[in-house]
Amino acid sequence: MATLTVRGLDEETRSRLRVRAARNGRSMEAEVRAILRDALSAPAEAYGLGSRMHARFAGIEPGDLPLPSRDDAPRAAVFDE
């Protein structure tokens, strides 16, 4: 079994870890093992946002979406002060 040392842990984080461990009836070391196990056992997302968007709209053909009228000439934006 491997040993891991965490240096420079601030007092607030250590205190919160201690409280969390006590609440769960574990030692701080056992609590850290549980946190790491839970964090690393979650499946990684197979797709990022762009891939999910592409998959969602992949079946839409270009002619399926109505385009707005392009009759107006381009104009500069006006910002109220």
List key phrases describing it:
about 80 residues; mainly alpha; Arc Repressor Mutant; 3 helices; about 0% strand; elongated; FitA-like_RHH; DNA binding; DNA-binding
Question: Which CATH class of the domain at 11-55?
Answer: Mainly Alpha
Computed Rg: 27 Å
Overall geometry: elongated
Q: Please give the alpha-carbon distance between the first and last residues.
A: 65 Å
- β-strand percent reads under 5%
Helix percent reads 40-55%
Layout of SSEs?
Blueprint: H1 11-23, H2 28-41, H3 49-57
Q: What is the gist of this entry?
A:
InterPro entries: Arc_rbn_hlx_hlx (IPR013321), FitA-like_RHH (IPR053853), Ribbon_hlx_hlx (IPR010985). The chain is mainly α and 81 residues long.
Fold and architecture overview:
By secondary structure, the chain is mainly α. The protein has a domain of 45 residues: Arc Repressor Mutant, CATH 1.10.1220. Helices cover 44% and strands 0% of the residues. The protein contains three helices and no strands. α1 crosses α2. The radius of gyration is 27 Å and the shape is elongated.
